[in-house]
Amino acid sequence: MTRVDVRGLRKTFGDHVALDGIDLTIADGEQVAVLGPSGSGKSTLLRVIAGLEDQESGSVLFDDVAQEGVPPHRRDSAIVFQHFALYPHLTALENITLGLRHGLGLGKAEADARAHDIAERMRVQDLLGRKPKAMSGGQRQRIALARALARRSGIVLLDEPLSGLDAQLHAVLRLEIASLLRGVGATGINVTHDQLDAMAMADRIAVINHGRLEQVGTPDELYAAPATTFVAGFIGTPPMNLFPAAPDGATALGTVRADPVTALVLGVRPEHLALHADGAPWHLTGRVAMVEPTGQDRVVQIVLDDGTTAAFRTPITMTPALGSSVRVGAASHHVHVYRDGVRVGDMSDVAHGVLRADPAGVAA
Ligand SMILES: Nc1ncnc2c1ncn2[C@@H]1O[C@H](COP(=O)(O)OP(=O)(O)OP(=O)(O)O)[C@@H](O)[C@H]1O
Ligand SMILES: [Mg+2]
User: What is the pTM assigned to this prediction?
Assistant: First the structure.
């Protein structure tokens, strides 16, 4: 088990800033998911932690020991690449033991024993004698994972280890990997652009965008109070509806008074907007443009007067007709307030005067 400290990490490729000052501490044995869109710097972060890329500035520490100058194979980390490759001419067993023998210098007997141990835990014993071409994509992925885990490193770095798998195998494997990493007590950093993977596997999620961390927190924290409009628009399916305030304070949900209002955005999750909520303080009116069945409920897309769209969830029995006009309402504590893209509270805070204490002065 190893604690990882990432401090002020910056990495550029020519003019492009891939990592723009990343600070992140991952506790011994903790599972952290790094979640972000394509090109946000996820793989770069993992590669710098693994020692495969040098940072421009900042540092990476494993248990308080700076890793600058420590080559990848001497670091207490194992990485599974986004585009992993097994040696095609070697069996699964040989693929797993190769690094143990040459990288870690283990003898054949011990390397074989470790390979069989991890293969048993991952239930791939039957594949050990096969070469990669005789395995399915999911089986190859498991062997690649087994190869990384067999090193028994304190830190396991996974770069989209589940991409390309069918949905069912994907859902099974993400739980297996998470419980395996917890079982061996490894500190796990798991890169993904899939929020469901991140939620299912991680103790905490670090959301990255344009090389910067937008928010680090438990899945519940990120969902309940997204710290930025980026996180609000990224977490949740469909994500939070966001409504910028006009200069006079008008938003699609109602009017806010604040100074200045133009930097304000109100947000409400689709599941917090309800039909027949006439007593609710915040309302949205629009025409039903699309009804999407999810199995358990319906996601309804409406078009507002200004042409923008919003989504709400509703029980199947209350599904409105396409083209009909609907009014949905939200409670104050479900209306998030963002200023300059950063969350300052929700509308019940405003009502209770909390936000009024803010120097820029938001008032309901
Ligand atoms: N070796 C490199 N040379 C130049 N630019 C690079 C290099 N590696 C990455 N980049 C750039 O740095 C940025 C971050 O890349 P990175 O691979 O970390 O993204 P990512 O979040 O892993 O994306 P994806 O989800 O597509 O894998 C991208 O804009 C990418 O084009
Ligand atoms: Mg990547």
Answer: 0.90
